[in-house]
Design goal:
The protein is an alpha+beta fold. The chain contains six helices and seven strands, in the order ββαααββββαααβ. β4 and β5 (90-94) form a beta hairpin. The longest helix is centred in the last third of the chain and has 31 residues, at 139-169. It is elongated.
Length: 188
């Protein structure tokens, strides 16, 4: 299904080895009816994998395939997926059972509005962290530095809010809830 910007929201294949007990996800992020999971048993819903995650037997990162939209949410701080670390250049996903790290380079899609907003958020965050208000400079320079830092922080907050709204409109919060992913910034 195409979204508003005519991009597809697809999962991008198996993340770790084929011994994973996670059922394959459809483009909407749900388990198709009557699909078989990789261990050979049939699954008609995500309830079995969610029950396992709630009981503590399976961690969220071991059953969650790489999802571009969820990775954008992790990068801006909307979601907390254990073992996932996202930067502008790479997403690193650590398998908790084997300790193996999967690296996904150039993970931001080139013509996707969510990726564009996520990049803008990352750039604003970098700029805000670089601008330092030096107390040893003249007062007018200090005021200028403080104003510049405040502007970058405002821009960062604005971009994060736009990313969260777009995640909500793409139903990523619903997919995250189905997968048992912790929500750090509530949906608007």
């Amino acid at each position: 299904m195409n979204n508003f910007w005519n991009n597809r929201n697809r999962q991008s294949g198996p993340l770790f080895n084929k011994k994973s007990s996670a059922p394959p996800l459809s483009a909407s992020g749900t388990v198709p009816a009557a699909k078989q999971n990789l261990s050979g048993t049939s699954s008609n819903s995500t309830s079995s994998s969610l029950a396992a995650s709630k009981s503590g037997t399976t961690s969220v990162s071991s059953k969650t395939r790489f999802d571009h939209d969820i990775a954008c949410g992790v990068f801006v701080g909307a979601f907390d997926v254990p073992g996932w670390i996202a930067s502008l250049e790479v997403v690193e996903i650590t398998d908790p059972t084997s300790g193996r790290i999967e690296r996904i380079d150039n993970w931001l899609r080139p013509n996707d509005m969510l990726a564009i907003l996520t990049k803008e958020y990352g750039k604003a965050r970098q700029k805000a962290s670089v601008v330092v208000v030096d107390m040893n400079t003249a007062p007018h320079l200090r005021a200028q530095q403080a104003k510049e830092r405040e502007e970058w922080m405002r821009r960062q907050s604005e971009m994060r809010d736009q990313v969260v709204c777009l995640l909500q409109s793409r139903h990523v919060y619903v997919r995250a809830k189905e997968l048992g992913i912790k929500e750090l910034i509530p949906a608007p």
